[in-house]
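Researcher: Quick test of sequence recovery. Tokens follow.
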């Protein structure tokens, strides 16, 4: 149905009561209010987003070579995605232009935009990701120490071989700072996932399997770790702390374990 000639009046039907309802549309006023509130909304959104860039579990605050490589890979993929968006949206706007001095070539859209451009971007992303992944895995690197991380609902047990025999700690992972450590991850019950966001990527802890990940903390300190795979009612509390010791503190820790 149409209105009564008033551009600011819309007409809707109540399908259940079959009643004619008039709705006042405050279009210009609504647009003006939205225009005034837009800067504040953008600022609030940026503040909320940037507020998650720091903290003990932030991947944007890397403290080890593996985490830095992952952060660089994320930025590279983000740049490639932004470039893809700009090119594709630019072609879309070009197609919408009503007045053009010359006709747009179909080859530009079909071959250039639909085949060549995505193949180039995907090839760059794939090659860079494979090379960086090999560097993160460190298959040829010899770790200074090997530690077993055993997940069990809902805690972690870390066992290493010390001067006086094996040492096991619950929810505390001791490593020497500045040295590469191999973490052998397994599980006693269900699938869990080992993750120290500021130092390395994550790897699954699977019953009956032993997965390997290399980790290194460049600076002594305490780093938060979590289970990154939902494992039951206690999943949210299944965290641990990685303690990176300086050489002197690590030597004292080893001597204390040997007594």
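Model:
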């Amino acid at each position: 149905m149409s209105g009564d000639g008033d551009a600011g009046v819309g007409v809707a039907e109540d399908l259940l009561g079959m009643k004619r309802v008039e709705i006042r549309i405050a279009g210009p006023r609504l647009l003006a209010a939205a225009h005034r509130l837009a800067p504040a909304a953008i600022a609030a959104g940026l503040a909320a987003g940037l507020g998650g860039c720091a903290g003990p579990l932030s991947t944007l605050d890397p403290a080890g070579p593996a985490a830095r490589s992952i952060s660089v890979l994320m930025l590279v993929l983000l740049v490639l995605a932004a470039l893809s968006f700009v090119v594709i949206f630019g072609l879309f706007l070009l197609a919408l232009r009503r007045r053009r001095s010359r006709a747009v070539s179909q080859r530009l859209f079909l071959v250039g935009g639909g085949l060549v451009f995505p193949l180039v971007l995907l090839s760059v992303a794939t090659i860079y990701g494979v090379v960086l992944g090999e560097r993160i895995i460190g298959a040829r690197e010899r770790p200074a120490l090997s530690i077993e991380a055993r997940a069990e609902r809902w805690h972690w047990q870390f066992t290493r071989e010390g001067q006086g025999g094996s040492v096991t700690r619950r929810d505390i992972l001791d490593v020497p700072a500045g040295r590469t450590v191999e973490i052998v991850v397994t599980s006693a019950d269900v699938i869990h996932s080992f993750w120290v966001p500021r130092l390395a990527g994550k790897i699954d802890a699977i019953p009956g399997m032993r997965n390997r990940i290399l980790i290194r903390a460049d600076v002594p300190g305490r780093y938060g770790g979590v289970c990154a795979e939902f494992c039951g009612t206690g999943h949210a509390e299944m965290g641990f702390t990685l303690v990176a010791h300086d050489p002197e503190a690590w030597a004292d820790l080893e001597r204390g374990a040997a007594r």
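Confidence is low (pLDDT under 50) at residues 1-18.
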